[in-house]
Amino acid sequence: MFHLGSSKPCHGLAFKTMTDILGIPIQALFGQLLLGLVNGSFYAVLSLGLAVIFGLLNIINFAHGALYMLGAFVAWMGLQYLGLNYWVMLIVAPLLVGLIGIVLERTLIRHLYKLDHLYGLLLTFGLTLLIEGIFRSMYGVSGQPYATPELLRGGVNLGFMFLPIYRAWVVVASIVVCLATWYIIEKTRLGALLRAGTENPKLVEAFGVNVPLLVTLTYGFGVALAGFAGVLAAPILQVSPLMGSNLIIVVFAVVVIGGMGSIMGSILTGLGLGIVEGLTKVFWPEASNTVVFIIMVIVLLLRPAGLFGKQA
Questions:
Q1: Is residue 147 helix, strand or coil?
Q2: Range of the domain at 275
Q3: pLDDT of residue 115
């Protein structure tokens, strides 16, 4: 996945003491922390999209993983068939995925807002199977490579580890997008209209606001975040129809732990759980695939609304 750096001894008493106490090479420890932070960045962006859609529209969007995969495939197809580079597709792919989301909301999802959550879950699960099935029949399941953009190739030797530039870019880009989304929803007039429009649409419409359009654009924006994460993941992972299947389960766990509909909760929980998962791979590798779900069970027992959710 990445280089852990040279085998030269680390300088500094703090690093040496930590290595002696933990019995783990410092390069391996920081390498897994970086990998956990990268995974946490994807968790944060994807869970943020889910939180936006659920918090504002009350829809459990199980198709989020398939739309994440779709973002990666749009970027790959743009490069393969049209020669559009990574930087262009980083903007175009989320817009196209968001447009697809708008079409889905207008034609299917808008009819479920007043129904039980289960109907939205079943519909979006069916959409997931449909989207994945189409791409499996077209490209198989082996995966397609996507080259890292030239500007972000290579890495920097920090002494105690080797830092791949692209992975650092993923973390920075994810955090910037997450914080910008939080600011728009929580601190701007547009965000206030979105929240008010979903809580009391009749009152907001009385002030001349087109609430159905706001709802449609909100769903489109939520799935565009999934498309953005897919483009970020394309150079790291093989672009495959199944790349979102396993990830979406973990992302749902992140949303539950953070609190359903909590914007900042999704961001902080996604990043934090990614780091916890990375550390678990160092100290207890066998539990790394289940640690997120163990934490989810504990949180639900102690605080059913999640760490940042509002108690009923």
A1: coil
A2: 27-140+157-302
A3: 81
Instruction: List, in sequence order, every residue forming a beta bridge with 239; answer none if it has no partner.
Output: 144
Q: Say which DSSP state 63 is in.
A: T
CATH number, domain at 203? 1.10.3470
Whole-angstrom Cα distance, residue 25 to residue 285?
Answer: 15
Structural domain includes residue 14: no
pLDDT beyond 80 at 110: yes
The two tokens of residue 84 are 């559009």
pLDDT at 23: 62
Gap between the Cα atoms of 200 and 310, Å rounded = 19
Q: Give the up-direction half-sphere exposure of residue 218: CA atoms within 13 A in the CB hemisphere.
A: 31
Whether the per-residue pLDDT at 229 is higher than 60: the answer is yes
Domains: count for the chain: 1
Q: Averaged over 66-79, what is the pLDDT?
A: 94
pLDDT at 24: 66
Residue pair 143/239 in contact (Cβ under 8 Å)? The answer is yes
First to last CA, the chain: 43
Q: Is residue 11 part of a domain?
A: no
